[in-house]
Structure formats: structure tokens, C-alpha cells
Automatic annotation (TrEMBL):
The protein's name in its UniProt record: histidine kinase
Histidine kinase domain location: 388-603
InterPro entries: HATPase_C_sf, HATPase_dom, His_kinase_dom, HisK_dim/P_dom, HisK_dim/P_sf, PAS, PAS-assoc_C, PAS-like_dom_sf
Keyword Phosphoprotein attributed: yes
Encoding gene per record: fixL_2
Length: 609
């Protein structure tokens, strides 16, 4: 077998190999047309190599004519995909120029197929035998050149312009290596194939036509890219394995439960912590509906939540209880993310589950303790004003007794006008209501159930405080001046808690005044509307707060009193903050202290109370 036959057959085989590789790449990524164009180029080059082999060994002019005609067809299906391959790969290059090249080659193909001869020769008269440098003979044609050959020559020049333009533009855009690896081999192919063909026609080289050989530059570039992709894929595979190992270690050992749920609501995976939370084995959890592990009363709601999450995505964070193997309820906080496919369709969910059962129990215990402390604080405050309360109750009770005795004296005597008895009974009823109001106020203040927030008239709060403290303040010789509260807008608050705030602040001020022995001790209560808040000021003219204690005065355990627990102002701070307000103070030595707190205004219209 001749060396020409072996070499050109080998080139054809390489083209077929590249064709199948690129076709496989296109089938794997059908959205990318570049591999399909490369496959078309490779198959055309393989066919062109066989046509060149037939021309080199043709036994007659007719066989040569058929071979060169088919070779021109192969060249057409090689260069047109090549132009658009460059455009797709580099993402640049004038589309109008690519279209012009395509149009010229379509004209050339028509000339090749439908006019006498082929695109290269109008007619071939004979074949000239020539020898290679190793002594093997091959054919070259002797004939009349086709005048329409200029179409392919112009198209070739335009291909050089287009490829150069696209390569330079991509290079300037930062795609340097990619531009050189794509545009460089194409330019080499066009120049090498074109120049070599001219030299063969002029008898200047001792080889057959080698257009297919020039394609090997493109084949090598495509192959190097595949090798590079394979190396990158191997590196990414290693990184992926390492990432999976780290994820698996985290998945298995994290203290939080991790669970996967399909779009249909079935559990797809669960880590050790999640299995421990449920008190079950993996085989008893994976594949089961999630609703099997929630309280029966909530299963319908869970199905609705999953259906909604499938459409709009899950809540980022939510509370939802689970049941363990013994049927015990577990309070769980879920942090959820959606799992989506390449079409952004939700295919499932992954959640991190935090068992907060113990924390909730502790929180409830702390709340109960806090309520107990607040009740004790209120009781302690009331203990200080017991004498005043006794005085307040003594007046209506003494009135009731006096009126009842008067009625008792009247009855045995001569008939008395009914009007006099009615007046006596009215006085008894009035005094009884006063005593009842005082007792109800005390009961509410001592009650551990403080209720919810609602519109509250601040005037009513101040009136209760005035009634409770008036005797105490009088006994201590302290003046309690309260700005007119009847026109204060209503606030959104808990009445009992706000009363406790006033009680603590006023009693604290009273202690400072008494300890200091201030002349003309005075406590004032003022108010101002600040936007959507009511600001209340409790002002005293006492000695002020010790500068060393000012930063921590609102913290637990800090007190200005020798026998104090340091909880009063802490409770006041918590109450105000729970109302969405703020509390602060200013104090100057020898000039007194001003405590200021805010509470939100109610949406109800203000009015006199």
C-alpha cells in the first residue's frame, strides 16, 4: 500500500473520530450548537481527505472530475460551519460578514453542481503524473480554469477578514487564550490550504492537494480543548469529592437536625441528629410522609403548607412541632430552603431543625419566675403605703358606720320622712362604692394575670395612683403635682403594668427625697405627645442619683436604697420595652432626677376622662 493511501486514510480516520467526539458533546449539551458545527467540519474534512486520495490515484479524467466536484462540496460544508463556529465560540465578529461569506459559498456550490465542470475547472483535458519527494506518483489536472472560481477566492479572503476581526475583538475583551485557540487554527487552515493549493496547481510542491491536512490544526485545537476540559473535570471531581466529604462529616455530626423533604411531602434523607430527635432509625424515617411525624391535629395544615411552598417557596423560618417515637411533642424551629432543578421548578425542600423544647420549657419557667417577682415587687410597694390605704378605707367605712347608726336610731322613734332615710342610704351606697373601688384597685395591682394591651385612658391610671398614694405622700410631707391628664390621648397599654411603672418611679423618688431630708420635697408628673408616642416625665427635686451608679441603675440588683433588692427599675424597664417604648433619665447632683418613658398612642380618639 502506498504512503499517500496510508496518510490520507489516516487523516480521514482522524476526521471521523473528531466527528463522533463532537457529536457526543453536542448530544450532551444540545443547547450549544458549536459542537454540532465542529462535528460537521470534521466529517467534511474526512470526506475531503478521501476525495483528495481518489484525485491523487485517479485512473481516468472522469474519476478525477467526480472526485474534485465532491471535494468542492466537502469544502463548502467545511468552511461555512467554520465561520459560524468562530462566531459562536468567540461571541463576536460581524454577522453581516458571516452572512456574505455564506451567500458567496452558496453561489459557488451552485456553480460547482449545475454549471459545466466544477468550481475550479470548466473542463479537464488530461491528468499529469508527478512524483513526490519520496518517489511516489500522483495526479494533477490540466484544464481550463473556471472564471467563477473568483467567488470562492473572494469568500476565502472574507473568511480571513472575519476570523481575524473576531479573534482580535475577543482578545481585546480579555478572552486571550480562548481567542487564540479558536481563531488561530482557523486562520492557519485557510492560509495553509489556500497557499498549498496554489502551489500544487503551479507545480511548485511535490504533494497532492492537502486541504484536509490543514484541518488537522483545527482538530488538534479541538482535541486540546477536550483534554483541558477532561483535566478540569478531573480536578473538579476531586474537589467535589472533598466537598462531599466535608458536607457528609458536617451532615453526620452537626447537633442540629437536617432533613430533606420531596415536593410531595416525603422524607428523602435525615441526619443522625434528626433521627435522634425523632427517636427512630433511618429505615423508619426515610421514604415516609412527613405528616406521620407531626401531631394529628396539624396534619391537614402541614399538607396545605407543603402545597403552598411548592408553588411560591417555603417560609425561611417557622415553628412546627414533631412527635418522637413515644408520641412526645417536640417544639422545633425550622430553617427552610427550596431545592430547584435547572428550570427553577421546586423539587423538594431541605430544612435545619432546632429542638427548642427544653429552651421553651426554661423560658416558661423564667416567665413564671418573672411574674412572681413582679407580684412580689407590687406587694412590697403596697406594703409601703399600707397606712395610706388604711386611711383611704377608713373614711368610707366610718361613713357607712355613722350613717347606719343614724338610721338605726331613727327607726324606733317617731315616723321620719322617707326622704331623710333615702339620703342616709345614698351616703351609705356612695361610701361603700369608694371602699369597693379601692379594694378592686388593690386586687388588680396584686393580680398575676396582667392581661393584654388595649386602649387606656392615662387620666384613669393617674387617678388610681393619686388615690393610692395621696395619704402616703401627705404623711411623708411630699407634694405630688400632676399635670392635667384629662386631655391626654389614650395609649395602647396594659393598665395594671403602667400603674406599676408609676408606682415604682414615684416611690423611688419619695425614698430619695426622704433619705435626703430635702426641704419642700416635691414630685411632679408631666406629659408631652411625641409623634406616635406619649412621653411621661416623673420629676423630683431630690439629691439626684449617685454618679457612680447612673450607668447601671436600670440593671438588676442595682439600687439606691439600703434595704432594696434592685428589681423595681429593672421591672419598669422591661414593662416599658414590652410596650414598644423607651425609658431613660437625667440626674444632676443636688438638683433632682427626671425619669422619662414613652408608650404608644392608641388609634382611638382622645377625650376627657
Amino acid at each position: 500500500m502506498s504512503l499517500i493511501t496510508i496518510a490520507w486514510s489516516f487523516v480521514s480516520a482522524i476526521g471521523v473520530t473528531v466527528f463522533f467526539v463532537q457529536l457526543a458533546l453536542w448530544r450532551a449539551h444540545k443547547g450549544n450548537l458549536a459542537p454540532l458545527l465542529a462535528a460537521t467540519m470534521a466529517l467534511s474534512a474526512a470526506g475531503g481527505a478521501l476525495c483528495e486520495l481518489v484525485m491523487a490515484k485517479a485512473a481516468s479524467v472522469r474519476v478525477f472530475e467526480i472526485a474534485i466536484l465532491l471535494n468542492n462540496v466537502m469544502v463548502f460544508f467545511l468552511v461555512i460551519p467554520m465561520v459560524w463556529f468562530v462566531r459562536l465560540r468567540l461571541g463576536t465578529g460581524p454577522i453581516w460578514l458571516a452572512g456574505a461569506i455564506t451567500a458567496l459559498w452558496v453561489i459557488g456550490l451552485g456553480v460547482n453542481l449545475f454549471l459545466p465542470g466544477d468550481l475550479t475547472f470548466s473542463s479537464i483535458e488530461s491528468l499529469q503524473k508527478r512524483a513526490t519527494f519520496w518517489g511516489e506518483t500522483f495526479n494533477t489536472p490540466v484544464g481550463t480554469a473556471n472564471p467563477f472560481r473568483i467567488v470562492s477566492e473572494v469568500a476565502t479572503l472574507l473568511i480571513i477578514m472575519f476570523t481575524g476581526w473576531a479573534t482580535i475583538a475577543a482578545f481585546r475583551n480579555g478572552l486571550r487564550f480562548h481567542a487564540l485557540r479558536t481563531g488561530g487554527p482557523v486562520l492557519f487552515f485557510i492560509l495553509a490550504a489556500g497557499i498549498h493549493t496554489v502551489f500544487v496547481d503551479l507545480g511548485m510542491v511535490g504533494t497532492p492537494y492537502m486541504i484536509s491536512w490543514a484541518f488537522m490544526a483545527i482538530a488538534i485545537a479541538l482535541g486540546s480543548e477536550i483534554v483541558g476540559d477532561a483535566v478540569s473535570a478531573a480536578r473538579l471531581h476531586t474537589q467535589l469529592q472533598q466537598s462531599e466529604s466535608r458536607w457528609q462529616a458536617l451532615f453526620d455530626n452537626v447537633d442540629l437536625g437536617v432533613i430533606g423533604v420531596s415536593a410531595e411531602g416525603r422524607i428523602t434523607f435525615a441526619n443522625r441528629s434528626m433521627l435522634a430527635l425523632l427517636g427512630r432509625a433511618d429505615c423508619d424515617v426515610v421514604g415516609q410522609p412527613l405528616e406521620n411525624f407531626v401531631p394529628p391535629a396539624l396534619r391537614g395544615e402541614l399538607a396545605s403548607r407543603i402545597s403552598t411552598a411548592r408553588q411560591v417557596g417555603p417560609r425561611a423560618r417557622t415553628d412546627y412541632p414533631l412527635l418522637d417515637a413515644e408520641g412526645k411533642r417536640k417544639d422545633v424551629v425550622w430553617s427552610l430552603v427550596a431545592i430547584r432543578d435547572h428550570d427553577e421548578t421546586i423539587t423538594g425542600f431541605m430544612a435545619i431543625c432546632d429542638d427548642v423544647t427544653a429552651a421553651r420549657r426554661t423560658e416558661n419557667d423564667l416567665n413564671e419566675t418573672r411574674r412572681t417577682i413582679e407580684k412580689l415587687d407590687r406587694s412590697a410597694a403596697l406594703a409601703e403605703i399600707t397606712a395610706g390605704i388604711a386611711h383611704e378605707l377608713n373614711q368610707p367605712l366610718a361613713g357607712i358606720l355613722s350613717n347606719a347608726q343614724a338610721a338605726r336610731r331613727i327607726l324606733p322613734n317617731s315616723p321620719t320622712p322617707i326622704k331623710d332615710l333615702a339620703e342616709i342610704l345614698d351616703d351609705i351606697i356612695y361610701d361603700n362604692k369608694r371602699a369597693r373601688d379601692i379594694i378592686i384597685g388593690l386586687r388588680q395591682l396584686l393580680s398575676p394575670q396582667v392581661g393584654s394591651m388595649c386602649p387606656v385612658a392615662m387620666a384613669a391610671v393617674i387617678e388610681d395612683i393619686r388615690r393610692l398614694l395621696s395619704s402616703e405622700m401627705t404623711t411623708r410631707g411630699i407634694s405630688l403635682a400632676i399635670e392635667d391628664m384629662r386631655i391626654v390621648p389614650m395609649v395602647q397599654a396594659n393598665k395594671v403594668q403602667i400603674e406599676q411603672v408609676f408606682l415604682n418611679l414615684i416611690l423611688n423618688a419619695a425614698h430619695l427625697l426622704m433619705d435626703d431630708g430635702s426641704e419642700e420635697p416635691k414630685i411632679e408628673i408631666r406629659w408631652r405627645v411625641r409623634g406616635e408616642k406619649l412621653a411621661v416625665y416623673v420629676i423630683d427635686n431630690g439629691p439626684g442619683i449617685n454618679p457612680a451608679m447612673r450607668k447601671a441603675i436600670l440593671q438588676p440588683g442595682v439600687t439606691t436604697r439600703k434595704d432594696g433588692l434592685g428589681m423595681g427599675l429593672t421591672i419598669v424597664k422591661r414593662i416599658i420595652e414590652s410596650h414598644g417604648g423607651k425609658i431613660g433619665f437625667t440626674s444632676r447632683a443636688g438638683r433632682g432626677t427626671v425619669f422619662r418613658f414613652t408608650v404608644p398612642l392608641s388609634q382611638d380618639e382622645p377625650g376627657e376622662v
